[in-house]
Structure formats: C-alpha cells, structure tokens
Specification:
Elements: H1 7-19, H2 24-38, E1 44-50, E2 57-64, E3 72-74, H3 78-86, E4 90-92, E5 110-118, E6 121-130, H4 138-152
The structure holds methionine sulfoxide.
Length: 155
C-alpha cells in the first residue's frame, strides 16, 4: 500500500529523469516504468495527451502494462474523458460502481486519473489502473499531482 512507498524519493527520481539526456517519449516512458515498478498497486501506468487536431480527444502516449484498445478517448467518455472535462483528479476506488467507464481488462478494479495542466488548460493526463479495490490514498493523489506538475514543464 502507499503508506510503505517513499514518494519523496520517487519524486526526486522523476526530476532526475526529466533532467537527463532522454527525449520526451523516453522520459515519459521512464516515468511510467518508475511508477509501476515501485508502487505495488500501480498495475498500468500511462499518459494520454490532448489531440493535435481533435482538441476534445485524448490520444494514448507512453505507457507500461497490458496494451489497451482505448488509444483515443473523447472528452466525457470513461474516467479519462470525465477527468479531462473536470480538469481535476478523478479517483474511482471500485470501477464496478462507475457506469461511465471504459474497461481495458477485467483485472482492473480501480483507477486514478490526474490532469496535466498548462496555464489552466488541460494538455494531457496521467492514468493509473490498479488490480486492487480501494488502493488509492490522499498520498497517491498528492504525489501524482506533483508528478504531473513536473511533467507539464516538458510537454
Ligand atoms: N479505463 C479508462 C480507459 C483507459 S484505460 O484505463 C488504459 C477510462 O475509463 O477512461
């Protein structure tokens, strides 16, 4: 559970990744790997970005975990699309209770989506699926918001 995770250490490693030699895609992929490999209840970690032409659509970016059919998601659709409309963190502790949900795998039991904002506008999201029910705490939310603030500087 998140109480055993050293989120401060992970944040410093996110900053190291941001400042290293990799290109943008590699940095984002490395952040996904860092998060998935160090937090037990993060089973799928990925970025979605607002489309270049379709501004009301999210397009899948770097991710780690099982491939998903949801490579494009309209604003308002699913947990990701709702978070994009709200421009706010959306935590669903039990996806079986969420009617507006796009399933990627029956293994997924919960999800947290954190917007990436630039000048108050949504440019993307960090999406995390978990195979556990009710795994996310306030610590996850605060940590992931900080990750997204850091990522906002390079996208
Ligand atoms: N479950 C998401 C779709 C994206 S996958 O989790 C990767 C949703 O309901 O928006």
């Amino acid at each position: 559970m998140s109480k055993n995770v050293d989120f401060d250490l992970l944040l410093s490693r996110v900053n190291e990744i941001i400042n290293d030699f990799q290109n943008e895609y590699e940095k984002l992929k490395s952040i996904c790997e860092l998060l998935k490999n160090n937090v037990d209840h993060y089973d799928w970690v990925g970025f979605y970005f607002v489309g270049n032409t379709e501004k009301n659509e999210l397009v899948l970016g770097p991710f780690v975990g099982e491939p998903t059919e949801h490579v494009k998601i309209k604003f308002g659709d699913g947990i990701c699309g709702q978070a994009a409309e709200m421009k706010d963190v959306f935590v669903v502790q039990d996806v079986s209770k969420e009617t507006n949900y796009l399933s990627c795998s029956p293994k997924v039991k919960s999800e947290i989506v954190v917007p990436i904002l630039k000048n108050g506008e949504i440019v993307g999201e960090l999406d995390i699926d978990s195979h556990k029910i009710e795994p996310f705490t306030e610590k996850d939310k605060l940590f992931l918001e900080k990750v997204c603030e850091i990522v906002a500087k390079i996208v």
